[in-house]
Amino acid sequence: MTSGSEGGIALPRSIRKNWDLYLLILPVVIYFLLIKYLPMYGIQIAFKDFSAAKGIWGSDWVGMKHFVRFFNNYQFWTLIKNTVGISIFQILLAFPLPIFFALLVNEVRGKWFKKSVQSITFMPHFLSTVVLVGTVMAFLSPSTGLVNNVIRAFGGEPIYFMTEPGMFKFIYVFSDIWQNMGFSSVLYIAVLAGIDKHLYEAAMIDGASKLKRLIHIAIPCLIPTAIIMLIFQFGSIMDVGFEKIYLMQNDLNRTSSSVISTYVYEIGLLGSQYSFSAAVGLFNSVINFVLIIIVNQTAKRVGGTSLW
Amino acid sequence: MIKAFSAASAAMLLTVSLLSACSDNNSSSSTEAGEATPKSGTENAEQVSKSGFPIANEPISLSAMVLLSPAQPTEWNDIAVWQEYEKMTGIHIDWDEYTTADITEKRNLALASNELPDIFYRTKMPDSDVDKYGAQGSFLKLNDLIDQYAPNFKAVMEKYPDVKKGIATADGSIYALPNLTDSPSIEITKKLFLNQDWLKRTGKKLPTTTDELYEVLKAFRNDDPNGNGKTDEIPLTADSLDDIMLVLKGAFGLGNKGTGNGNWDVDPDSGKLRFFPTSESYKELLTYLHKLYSENLIDQEIFTNSGTNVLAKNEQNMVGSFSFANIVARANTNAKDFVGLDTALSGPNGDHLFTSARGHFGSKGAFMISSTNKHPEATMRWIDYFYGEEGTRMLYLGLEGQTYQKDASGNYDFIPEIVSNIPEGSSFDQVVSKYVPYAGGSLPTLLLEKYFKGGETEPAAKAAAEKLGPSLPEELWAPFSFTSEESKEKLSLEADIYGYVSQRTAEFVQGKASLDEFDKYVEWLEKMGLNDLQSIYETAYSRYTTK
Q1: Residue A85 domain-assigned (yes or no)
Q2: Where do Polar residues bias regions lie (chain B) (predicted)?
Q3: Among candidates B7, B129, B303 on the partner chain, residue whose Cβ is nearest the Cβ of A20
């Protein structure tokens, strides 16, 4: 980064000198301006009473009205609790598993076996959410589902999984692990494959066991990547996947399945209360933003790794 | 250097394609808007004939948004009736077809961005949006146009008082033409159908009270009426819990003005408007339903059920009774087993009423003319035809001689060549949808029973409706109208309140919440602003009654 004072003259010259590099980055800059920054002017409707006829600029300002309404909403704490709860649960379970899985795969010697394990765990990632939720519901159906048939075979009472609010979190996270563990582990497997073979050889000469090599070479090499991934996860803690939750939702599990994104959809797009849903969305983004900064700073101080 | 150059040119290419993608979008939307604007409005009024066909002396093209039924061809202009009507009127319609999954989003986007099609034709427009966007000026006010260019619709308004009461917004403006019906079997929206084969096997008669229904369902559960030696019978099912409640709530005196205004009716004691999910009778209904559910008499999967599930369970002969508008859409091979009630069920307090019924309004906002439409007069004449008998016949049966005929006794039906050989794997609706556009329902028209060949007018469903007829409420409300101020507040209250009602209702029926908590639930609803909502409805109600 050049400092502000010399920027005025130095910058154009550096552009002239490296014009091809700047040209190379131009599409990205344009993309971000058009797709990410330009639409931000619409955020103002969170502070207005949006009316289609008056347009975004012309609508009347109402201050924090929509935010106050959201904070006073009877569902407010339920929404926050569910959103954060599902996210944390997801991070606790679904985050370490791919790392663990990558370490296991890395130790496998048979090439053919290794590749097939990877492919099989990789594949569910390409199922669409609708298909996944349909499959989960079919498996968990109290009358015809496989799981309940097994329970019945052992003399148990069938459990109605989908309408049990307490089960929602588990079904959500475990089906997510089933679907995405293989895919998420690809990154870690790549990191492990990139570790310098000399490290292992040196360790072996020193007499380090397999476990020692794992603890002192593989895991330390993974940690920086893992931390970056963790920061990303925290940055989206308030955005649990809308589509999947919406598809899994019904009146009986609503107490634990209403999250901010489904609420915004119901109120905003279906109920066409755009200003209110914009306010809720903005609130969501602000929390995410603050969280990602906190986690990043913590990671920097504790582990020396950070996004920026 | 060569490397750098090629990288740069690749970057260029990317940029250019990105930019052109953007400008592509812009240009297409601007031509869409431009296409329909060859002349100004006033000039055109003179070129539109006041009666007879063609409507326009010079060809006119209009753009329209429409909901596509899965049974229909994806190009609406492939439907024979539209081709013929274009020839008759000289008006070409550019249909923009959207599926059920997309229509709400596309419609809201069009309205929010103010890039309107000339016509909204069956777009599932909610009543509140008709009032709101009408007041904001997105839709044309139709009062004068109806007066001058819509003789058929004017006659309809005179004939049906509830249509006249329900059509205008709070200040008397009309922004939309409705979907109307004159057919008891369609207006009785949900009916209870019982498996008469199972009744015979269990030695039971058609129930006449809720207690008898309970006994019948118990027999269905215990006596293995499908004879497979397993207790896999589902005594009562439906697409959703709502559908079951619709056919039972009349027996508890709920919904005594029909379904026109959802869960609002009139308190029989005080004569005041009432939100019945907080009433004692509602609690009794919930108690009854909870008894059925906890004894496995209601489908245990009712909370996650769907139409296809009901159909599948019927295919396996597992269903004792179900609630739906007709039989054939929910039962296939065993459709003949099912029969409607002989009379409406009487409830524990002697209520003998069937309230899953509406007035002549199917939906209020079936057809809207945008304020950007350059040919409002021609558009009004174009749609008015379908509120007359000839036009309705055309929508539902197509063209005389080509797709339908009249038999000696005066009955209309499709000609045999079209409907007698339905190919394997396609439905009746799919076959006739090549000729007529009615599949999916809710068209802006006045549907007459004699022209409609669907599940609701099949003999069994029609007979069921006829038997329920005497037990219908005396007055069936049309949906109330609200001012834009009222409807804004109403919408935000309703979203939370109705959501909470359906959540708690499900919990009470399933037993997760005990009915001892009913008072707490009512209290909570009041905290959520039920009283404010009540006063909004009361204002609208008093406007409705004085109209």
Answers
A1: yes
A2: 39-48
A3: B7
Rounded to whole angstroms, the Cα distance separating B307 from B330 reads 7
User: What ipTM was predicted for this assembly?
Assistant: 0.73
Residue-wise pLDDT for B408-438, tens only, equals 888 888 888 888 877 877 778 888 899 999 9
With left for phi above 0 and alpha for psi between -120 and 50, is residue B441 left, alpha or beta?
Answer: left
Q: Which of A27, A252, A266 sits opposite B11 (nearest CB)?
A: A27
Residue ranges in chain A modelled with pLDDT below 50: 1-7
Measured CA to CA, the distance from residue A100 to residue A9 in angstroms comes to 52
Say how far apart CA B485 and CA B491 lie, in whole Å: 10
What secondary structure, in 3-state letters, does B406-426 show? ECCCCCEEECHHHHCCCCCCC
Strand pairing partners for B323? B192, B238
Nearest Cα residue to A193 out of A102, A82, A71: A102
Q: Which residues contact B287 (CB under 8 A, 6 or more apart)?
A: B515
Cβ contacts of A27 on chain B, cutoff 8 Å = 11, 14-15, 18
Alpha-carbon distance B342 to B339, whole Å? 9
Largest interatomic CA distance in chain B: 93
Final residue of a structural domain among A63, A83, A115: A63
On whether residue A290 sits in a domain, the answer given is yes
Shortest distance, CA B231 to any CA of chain A (angstroms): 12
- Residue B46 pLDDT level (bands cut at 50, 70, 90): low
CB distance B127 to B70 below 8 Å: no
Same-domain pairing of A115 and A48: no
CB atoms within 10 A of CB A129: 17
Q: Exposed/middle/buried for A302, CB within 10 Å: 0-12, 13-18, 19+?
A: exposed
Total domains in chain A come to 2
Nearest CA in chain B to A29: B15
Cβ-contact B216, B400 below 8 angstroms? no
Q: In Å, how far is A142's CA from the nearest CA of chain B?
A: 7
Residue A95: burial class (beta carbons within 10 Å; 0-12, 13-18, 19+): middle
Residue A308 domain-assigned (yes or no): no
Q: In 3-state terms, what secondary structure has residue B338?
A: strand
Task: Note the pLDDT tens digit of each residue in B98-157.
Answer: 998 889 889 988 988 889 999 999 999 988 788 888 888 899 999 999 999 999 999 999
Report DSSP letters for B23-40, one per residue: HHHHHHHHHHHHHT-SS-
Q: Which two tokens stand for residue A227?
A: 């931390």
Catalogue all structural domains in chain B, each as residue range(s) with its CATH number.
40-186+359-454 (3.40.190.10), 191-356+498-514 (3.40.190.10)
| Residue in chain A lying closest to B233 (CA) | A143
Q: Tell me how crowded residue B7 is: count the other CB atoms within 10 A of its CB.
A: 14
Query: Taking a C-beta distance cutoff of 8 angstroms, is the pair B483, A263 a contact?
Result: no
Q: Which amino acid is at B516?
A: D
